Amino acid sequence: MMANFDVIVVGGGHAGVEAASAASRLGCRTLLITPDLERVGQMSCNPAIGGVAKGVVAREVDALGGVMGRATDASRIHFKMLNVSRGPAVWGPRAQCDRGLYTRAVRRILDEHQGLELLQGVVSGLLVQEGRVQGVTTRAGEVLGAGRVVVTAGTFLRGRIHRGSAEGIGAGREGEPASVELARALEELGLEVGRFKTGTPPRVDGRTVQYDRLERQDGDPEDYRFSAYVREELPPQRPCWITWTGSELKEVVQENLLRSAVYGGELAGKGPRYCPSIEDKIVRFPENPRHQVFLEPEGLHTHEIYLNGLSTSLPPEVQRTFIAGIPGLEQARVTRLGYAIEYDYFPPHQLRHTLEVRGIGGLYFAGQINGTTGYEEAAGQGIVAGFNAGLAAQGRGPFVLERDEAYLGVLVDDLVTKGVDEPYRLFTSRAEFRLLLRQDNAVERLGPMALDLGVLSESQSGELGAEMARRQAVREWLRKSRLAPDTVNPVLVELGSSPVSGPISARELVARPEVPVGALAGISPDAPDLTGDSAAAVAVHVRYGGYVERERARAAKLRKEARFKLGEELPYEAFLTLSWEARVKLDRIKPDHLAQASRIPGVSPADLQNLILEVRRWRGGGSQRKEAREKESSSSTLPVPRLP
Amino acid sequence: MGGDAVRVDTIVAAATPPGRGAVAVVRVSGPDALPFTCALVPVWRSQGTGPSARRATLALLRDPHHDAALDRGLITFFPGPASYTGEDLVEIGVHGSPLLVELLVEALVGLGARRAAHGEFTRRAYLNGKLDLIRAEGVADLIEADSEAAHQVAVHQVEGGLSHRLNEIRSQLLEVEALVMHHVDFPDEDDPPVPLSRILEAAQRVERRLEALLASAPEGELLREGASVVLAGRPNAGKSSLYNALLGEERAIVTAEAGTTRDALEARLSIGGFPFRLVDTAGLRTQARGIERYGIEVAERYLGGADVILLCLSASWSWGEEEEEFLRRWGRNTPLVRVRTQVDTVGAQQVPDWVVEPGTGPVASVSVRTGEGLGQLRGILKDLAFRGIAAKDPAAPVLTRRRQREAVARARDLILGFQGALAGGIPAEAAILDVREAEGALGELVGSVVTDDVLDQVFRRFCIGK
Ligand SMILES: Nc1nc2c(ncn2[C@@H]2O[C@H](COP(=O)(O)OP(=O)(O)OP(=O)(O)O)[C@@H](O)[C@H]2O)c(=O)[nH]1
Ligand SMILES: [Mg+2]
After folding, report:
1. Which residues form the pocket of ligand 1, taking CB atoms under 6 Å from any ligand atom?
2. Which residues in B lie closer than 8 A to residue A641 (C-beta atoms)?
3. CATH class for the domain made up of B146-216+398-446
4. What CATH number does the domain located at B11-132 have?
5. What is the pLDDT of residues B308-361, one digit of tens each?
6. The complex's ipTM?
7. What is the CATH T-level fold of the domain B224-391, as seen in this structure?
8. Distance (Å, rounded) from C-alpha B459 to C-alpha B454?
9. Which candidate, A320, A22, A325, A288, places its Cα nearest to that of A150?
10. A558-571 per-position pLDDT tens digit
11. How far is the CA of B225 from the centre of ligand 1 (A)?
């Protein structure tokens, strides 16, 4: 059969864009097919990238040569580093973007890719033969061949938009049709399907907002960049505004609760706990008198304002009424109404760590189709699936990140191992090695891997080499430097830090919480540049004392466990020393190694003990095993009495 | 142990101690427990029936291989998972003859059962989630307990008192982690961040609870081992006589000759419900030679490990340089009771100076002839060794093993480390690693995180059939 492409990517959202970019950067002939080429990389909900944990993911995608970081830099109109009051390991870079600039940047970056073709079209079916994918068919009747297909259908699979308690409207997102055929085709492959919901808030015309009644919030003045390799031109920044809902909104929502799609019972899918609608907030925290609303500009050249915090599925007139009750929005004209959207997802325990679907060779899933929320989570899966599809097409080994290497590793492992029971979002708390997984060291962690994969351009590789060298220089200097008291004491006194009596290394000084590494700039003629992000990133390590090293040690222990390989061939149902629940879960998830098995909910430590013994025995030779079987069956020839 | 112990085969062992008795019980556990049992009962075998669940049934037992009658047995079948081991379990009660028990076990082995290893029944109970590790240890303690207090502590441990307390502390630790992480993950939410002082307070609360548990450990361990009480003093002071009197039987040789006792004698006894190990030693004298010298060395070894020392001196003798020397050497670190022996030989009014000298610990005046002062001495012993536990709510959790003490101490140290790190300016999201490791240490203790070593260590202490 015709193999026109190495890899076909279905869907042009954040997952699809990264998957297509990743596969084509490997050198694969890649096709991205999506219903509307004007909306490639569209931000369907909040026009913002990053945040706590998510910001690290955006930087990881960038470090692997992905699109998201550059597109964010090229479109960000308000930047804030979250959690600066805490330690740098949990800083979260977050950027509001100009929606239009973002999609245009994505399109521009994709167009730079060699060997990547874009096609507008709706995929309606998958060609699968003998458990291997062969290509896709389109609604227009085209047949496109490829040995690897990455499906990134987002919320389009049987998507239904709900606003009020009336029956919803089929749609992938506002104004775009849902994909029913593809959903059916995937279901016919025997895959388990689930249903989730998510929501989006209303937007208003900024010219009708009374800003003098709101609290203004400006972006950070520094030129933070997500991209480590390419310096995009940064647009000017715009302020955001904060207001609070009050008792009036509370009453309106409470009175109309049953008219909301969710509380009216129209919508059954499960929604995220941590991204609650305003209805949820009122119901679940009735004692809370007010809730924060962020007014975020949608772009430089539009007056539209996104009302972050007001996600809702209430009917149009109720939305209008409660908006009018919010200080500063009394006169506000609504431009788009909020809605809840319900869609199919495929529980991700059906995937391998490469994001390939078990049992269907060459088929990969990435993004919201796997039950996640968020652009960053989608992009992260996209790049993992894209690399793996491309590598497999080239006959190369898989690309799997460990939990101590990247949030992407945590993300994929959580999905595949634990599955999801609500839309999955990344948190710092999901990463057990969070001190190692920082936004400031993403490039150090993943840049060299990207280099090995061969997915960086020449100029990107050069940038990476220079950055690694800068950091190395700072690291060396911190360790080797001996600074005399009379040079450092004036600086220390100025910082309110206690002076020293003898020579001291810069490392020891930077270990003091009150001494930022930049303050040592110019203190010694042989010091490298200490003012930039590279030096700050190195200093983070020092700042955390031995804790980073302890985390590394724990990670090493986990890796040792990971070396005890399990594998798909194990007959878990026959491992009778395991609890019933453990047998079922292990059989469903088929972990690659012991460490993964230990993370499966319902598999107890006692089960793990027994699992090791069972696997050793099972591998210990088929003959012994057969004997044991025979012995078992002979003993069962004894009369087994029926119980009264 | 290891591999064989957890294979799901069917295991068998006598559950009652070896020797003659009114009844003996043989336990069979595993997937074939029921068919094996039925194979021993000709009626059931021929009719394809068997015992009802959880009801004692009388039946004639025959060894199917040798076709020999064994005994009439009382059979109780506990279907898994509602059994002690969590598997199908059968208890067969027969007359208490060691030979019969052996024949019965052999018949079951002939059918395909395997002789159980030490503690294997309880190990299976643990692996099947019927008990946690702490409760399994409690089972071992319960079997070994030879005093009321040790028994009480073991019962509460089996019932889950200590496990419950440890799990409570674990969830408090998780709460501390949640306090730290909540605002890290949701900086934009409506609620303000949790102040550091609140996190520290929560950590201190946990620390106090861990300290309270640790404080119970020295006495808790004594409860299992028995407090060692060593009798010392010059030859002929009446040590062996007192030893016999406290035990209530003539264990040690008593003569009017000085230097009668040459070796140390040890015996367990219960005083007021608490376990003790009473040790009689050779009389101490400075110019000892040969075998006597050797006896004194043995005595000194016991003194070094004593929980309480009874320094005996006849009421008719005066306090001398030997006693002063002894006090300096042994009385510093170990509770010591000065015992005036043989008080029946002197008048009540003859109270020597050293008895009233304050600040050197309790004094007891005893006579083994009249029994005078023995009750008082018992009271003093109980008080010195177990004051803390005796005063406690009997249901309060107590640490009874080194494994437990070490894990709790590690958790406590980690919590102290956490507080120190926060005070030293280490960011909370880094320092929280200490809290998580503390939680892990307690998790390992309870058995929700374990390595095979820990398991083996715990289960090695069981005897067969438990
Ligand atoms: N009247 C009287 N005689 C006692 C009492 N206790 C011990 N005696 C006598 O004192 C003598 C020594 O007693 P032991 O118990 O053998 O003394 P000991 O301290 O064990 O002596 P060594 O083993 O030789 O060190 C024996 O003749 C006992 O009968 C007592 O309470 N009253
Ligand atoms: Mg004696």
Report:
1. B 235-241, 254-256, 258-261, 283, 341-342, 344-345, 367-369
2. 34-35, 38, 44, 48-50
3. mainly alpha
4. 3.30.1360.120
5. 999 999 988 888 888 888 888 888 889 999 999 998 888 766 666 666 665 668
6. 0.77
7. Rossmann fold (3.40.50)
8. 9
9. A22
10. 777 777 888 888 88
11. 29
